[in-house]
Structure formats: C-alpha cells, structure tokens
Amino acid sequence: MAFVSMAASMPRVVFIASLVAVLAMAAGPAAAHGGRVIHLRFYMHDITGGPGQTAVQVVKGPGPAHPVMPGSHFGDTTVIDDALTEGASATSRLLGRAQGTYTLASLREPVLSVSMTVALTGGAYNGSTIAVVGRDDVSASVRELAVVGGTGAFRRATGHVLWRTARMESRDHMVLELDVYATVPSGSPPPPRADAVRKGGLNLD
Predict the structure, then answer these.
(1) Which domain holds residue 23?
(2) 149 and 130, same structural domain?
(3) Cα torsion at 62, 64, 69, 70 (round to 10°)?
(4) pLDDT of the residue at 23
(5) Same structural domain for residues 5 and 64?
(6) Do residues 19 and 41 both lie within one domain?
(7) Bridge-partner residues for 83, per DSSP?
(8) pLDDT exceeding 90 applies to what percent of the chain?
(9) Long-range contacts of 139-145 (CB under 8 A, 24+ apart)
(10) Residue ranges of region Disordered (predicted)?
(11) What was the pLDDT predicted at 145?
C-alpha cells in the first residue's frame, strides 16, 4: 500500500520540482540585473618620500632581494594615505583618500598585494567608502583589482577597478588612474543628481 501511495504522489512531486526550477530560472536574470552600476574615475597620488609623503614602509621584508625591483625585498609592506584627485595633477580638486597597505608579494615579478579603502570626502559621494583588494602587477599597462564592499552609497558593493599608471611626477611620486565599476543592490541609496556628479568630478554611468 505504501508503494501505491508513493507512486500516486510522484506526478505531484515532479510538477512541484519543475515549478521550482522554472521560478528559479525566471528569478535568476532579474536578480542579476537588479543592481545599479556606478562608474567613478579619479587619480591616486602615491608619494613614497620627500615633502608631502603619503606612503610609508612599515615592514622591511625579511625575504630575498627582489631581482627586478632594486632596493626592494620580498615582504616589504607599505601603509598609504594617498590623495585622490579629480585630475592627474596633485593640485586638482581633492575627492578623497586611499587608505590601506600594499605588500611586495612575488619573489620574481613586480607584483604588489593591495588592500585599501577608498574614502570619498568630496563630490557627490562624500562620506561613502569603497573596499578594494587585489593583485597589482606594476609591469602591466592595465591591472584589475576587486571591489569587495563599501559603506554609504556603496554598501554591499561588488565590482572591479581598472588600475593604470598615469605618469611619474618624480622618483617618489607615482600617479595612478583608477576606473571603479561598482555594482550596488537596487535597494541602496539612490544615485546623486547628474549636476552634483559633475561638480564632484566623478563619472557616473
């Protein structure tokens, strides 16, 4: 009798399973497209010495000397509080700070492991932060790092950063161009007005 009862219920089980699968497939694209993409571009000034220094080595790596980065050792770690500006010039409008660390993480390649928070202090997203981590191969023209979170307008953000060396102002002053593509949930705070974005020097797509 139990076998007959189970057999009789099988069509209902199959129907329910099929319905769940269809609903999951329908919800998938909606969830994938439920976020909003925010595009920001700014310039980061990494100054490792001299007046206005913003990057300080706090650990001299105990590892071997690096073969392609003279004076550097595996494990060298630097703490940064780099200015973020609207343009490539250091005198351009200040939009925030990049605060965190980078470590020489390869024995043979010029690769840094970066962990930092972008703290926006000017423009449309004033008060919000973006968490960025990843691998910075300084020999590559374009590097890609990950957006792994944030606060304020970037709460629960995901995405990536296209990271380029814009120019060298001096031996101690490197200017980096950062293109941030952050996807935030649809329930996040709404984007600012377009005129506020332009005044803040931030690009919003």
Answers:
(1) 1-33
(2) yes
(3) 90
(4) 43
(5) no
(6) no
(7) 45, 97
(8) 70
(9) 139/109, 139/110, 141/165, 145/114
(10) 186-205
(11) 99
Structure letter (DSSP) for residue 152: G
> Is residue 86 within 8 Å of residue 95, measured between CB atoms?
yes
Checking if the pLDDT of 11 tops 90, the result is no
Asked if 202 and 40 touch (Cβ cutoff 8 Å), the reply is yes
Instruction: Name the token pair of 141.
Output: 């023209």
Instruction: Name the domain count of the chain.
Output: 2
pLDDT for residue 44: 99
Q: Which of 131, 162, 163, 136 is nearest to 148 (CA)?
A: 131
Q: What's the rounded mean pLDDT across residues 21-29?
A: 44
* One domain, residues 66 and 144: yes
- Look at residue 9 in the predicted model and tell me its pLDDT: 53
Amino acid letter for position 153: A
Other beta carbons within 10 Å of 11: 9
On whether the CB atoms of residues 28 and 176 are closer than 8 A, the answer is no
pLDDT tens readout for residues 122-165 = 888 999 999 999 999 999 999 999 999 999 999 999 999 999 99
Q: What is the DSSP string of 119-130?
A: EE-SSTTTT-EE
Residue 198 tokens, joined: 């332009």
Is residue 157, in this structure, part of any structural domain at all?
yes
For residue 137, give the CATH number of its domain. Answer: 2.40.480.10
Neighbours of 13 (CB within 10 A): 10
